[in-house]
Design brief:
about 600 residues; Rossmann fold; 2 domains; 6-stranded mixed β-sheet; 4-stranded antiparallel β-sheet; 10 strands; about 10% strand; binds adenosine-5'-triphosphate; binds magnesium ion
């Protein structure tokens, strides 16, 4: 298989560009925070001054007034500042989360089928919710808290030394140094636990997503109880992993309390002695105790920050792993701007085409040689699993085959710019996926223009619906074309879904149209009508019809029969009937069935 890995650059996720784009927010936020911290620092000192002034009798109530005014002003500055830094920093973190979420989604949309074969929707959803939230917390509150804790600690210590006493400060601070070591080991262990917690959440959301998406099958097979059991297991695992994080957090929190308590105890004992000896004043002693109290918060914050950062680091690794995924299907020369002006003629040639799925072992298509001329209608018949949809996948470049095995207009398919390929190929997939939107939007899905801006498109939408024989059905719905379709089209019948998908593909009016088993759920009269319309509309354009019913295929210019990935029969309806092989056998069987039905 052709490897395109080297041609597509791996994306490396880095936080720097995101942080840099909010540099002014961070700078202003930090400045405001500094002002808040400085203001708060003066309050214990002013309180100490008042106590000393009053106890020593150096000033009366008149002397207290200006100090009270200063305390009031400091309080006011703190109040405004706290709003200010939240505004800047929380604003930045929300902005970063928004940008990362968009980038992640945009990247996911470039990834190919191979990626989605091995990644589950619920797991990917968890990246969008939990992981990005964890990163947001780290670049928001945690940044602020870390900065604040460091600045506060330094400033408080300086104040304690300058305003009170160096020895007493050192004594009170010794137990607090233990916290730094604690934080380090706590961070390492907590990151492991956070990773396990996030994986458990991913698994849980995947479990819920899959069960709810398959709820109809689940109920039909009365598997609610068994499914609930496995959900409960996943949920329990999620709870346990969360508890593991919380337990460590609780132990660390208790140790922090103990250390700060120890600091306070040392201050009381030794500080008290110093007051008695007259080395420090009562006012200084009271202020010192307030400062110790102010140191408690940075210590607790230290624990919280380590927690948030380790959670974010684990989340970052998970998101970065997705960013490292490269799309397999890319334009052959990514350095050149693709020329999308050209149009496909619709000439398709299969040269000894052999294809094995990237994660498959045996080839699903083997040595197929086939030429579909522009304007031709090719029918494909084959037992289930014979490789019909795989061939459609290759034509649409959902997967790549070896170079030169598949030519479009004489060129290897990977040399045709993807913009042309996606524009000039229309496809009705076997599973008829519809979006939970209006029928009108679903049919107009392949158009470049949006109907809201081009209401004149409605006429062609209605015409495509008429050609696909769904118009009358739609007009019977309460809101006609504005009827909302349930998730994946659940509110429509199988046949209605198929015909809406056909209308969507017909509206594109592209050079090549592939219908994969698209008439299997419609009755024979409707089938006849749709085929008649197809013949008329697709004159001069290439059409490939994959089907199990001879009635769908017999009018095609040529019919190819696939047997276990090999092309075993090829010709017109009459030629194949005359050949007496698989096609003739199926034809005979289906004719008999029809006769029996008519009797
Ligand atoms: N993504 C995939 N990875 C690996 N193998 C796959 C993948 N998709 C299909 N296959 C295998 O390829 C073979 C051909 O499948 P394909 O879907 O092309 O059959 P089909 O002819 O369209 O059948 P049906 O008539 O039931 O739609 C099958 O054996 C299937 O198991
Ligand atoms: Mg198929």
């Amino acid at each position: 298989m052709k490897s395109t890995m080297s041609e597509t650059k791996q994306k490396k996720l880095s936080m720097i560009p995101y942080l840099w784009s909010y540099k002014w927010h961070y700078l202003l936020g930090v400045i405001v925070l500094l002002l808040v911290d400085m203001s708060s620092l003066y309050i214990p000192q002013y309180t100490g001054d008042i106590i000393d002034g009053l106890t020593k009798g150096t000033f009366g109530f008149e002397g207290v007034k200006p100090i009270l005014l200063k305390i009031l002003l400091a309080g006011l500055a703190m109040m405004l500042g706290r709003f200010g830094w939240r505004f800047f920093i929380i604003g930045a973190s929300r902005g970063i989360e928004y940008k990362m979420r968009n980038d992640l989604f945009q990247h996911l949309e470039t990834l190919s089928a191979r990626f989605y074969n091995s990644h589950k929707t619920g797991d990917l959803m968890a990246h969008f919710t939990n992981d990005l939230q964890a990163i947001r917390m780290a670049v928001g509150m945690a940044v602020i808290t870390t900065f604040d804790a460091v600045v506060m600690t330094v400033m408080v210590l300086v104040k304690m030394i300058v305003y009170v006493d160096l020895k007493l400060t050192l004594l009170a601070f010794i137990p607090l140094t233990l916290v730094a070591f604690g934080c380090y080991y706590y961070g390492i262990e907590q990151k492991k636990r956070q990773t396990r917690r996030q994986e458990a959440f991913s698994y849980l959301s995947d479990k819920a997503q899959e069960s709810l998406a398959g709820i109809r099958v689940l109920k039909a097979f009365v598997q609610e109880e068994a499914d609930f059991k496995s959900f409960e297991d996943a949920s329990k695992n999620n709870m346990e992993k969360n508890l593991a994080v919380a337990k460590l957090q609780a132990v660390f929190g208790a140790l922090l309390d103990m250390v700060t308590g120890l600091s306070l105890l040392l201050t009381l004992v030794f500080g008290g002695k110093m007051v008695l000896n007259g080395q420090v004043s009562i006012g200084q002693f009271v202020a010192f105790n307030s400062y110790i109290g102010m140191l408690v918060w940075p210590m607790i914050a230290c624990g919280d920050c380590v927690n948030t950062f380790s959670q974010a680091a684990a989340a970052f690794h998970r998101v970065a792993a997705i960013f490292r995924e490269v799309p397999d299907i890319v334009d052959a020369d990514t350095s050149l701007q693709a020329d999308c002006e050209l149009h496909l003629e619709g000439d398709i040639r299969l040269n000894d085409l052999t294809f094995t799925y990237p994660d498959g072992e045996l080839p699903v298509l083997k040595n197929i040689n086939l030429h579909i001329r522009p304007g031709e209608m090719l029918g494909i018949l084959g037992r289930t699993g014979s490789g019909k949809s795989s061939l459609a996948d290759l034509l649409l470049r959902v997967y790549d085959c070896e170079k030169g095995m598949l030519l479009l207009d004489g060129k290897p398919i990977d040399e045709i710019p993807l913009c042309i390929l996606h524009r000039d190929m229309a496809y009705v997939p076997q599973d008829n996926f519809l979006f939970s939107d209006t029928l009108e939007e679903n049919i107009a899905f392949g158009l470049e223009e949006r109907i809201q801006e081009h209401p004149e498109l409605r006429d062609s939408i209605h015409q495509a619906a008429r050609d696909a024989c769904i118009h009358d059905n739609i007009m019977d719905f309460p809101e006609n074309y504005l009827t909302l379709v349930g998730e994946r089209g659940v509110t429509l019948s199988g046949g209605q879904k198929q015909r809406s998908s056909i209308a969507r593909a017909l509206l594109k009016d592209s050079a090549v149209l592939i219908l994969d088993d698209s008439l299997s759920a419609v009755d024979t009269d409707t089938e006849e009508q749709i085929l008649e319309n197809l013949m008329r509309l697709r004159k001069g354009k290439t059409t490939i019809v994959i089907a199990h019913r001879i009635s769908t295929l017999q009018q095609a210019d040529h019919i190819a029969v696939l047997t276990e990935g090999e092309l075993t029969e090829y010709g017109t309806h009459d030629e194949l009937v005359a050949l007496g092989g698989f096609y003739a056998h199926i034809n005979e069987k289906q004719q008999l069935e029809q006769e029996l039905q008519e009797e």
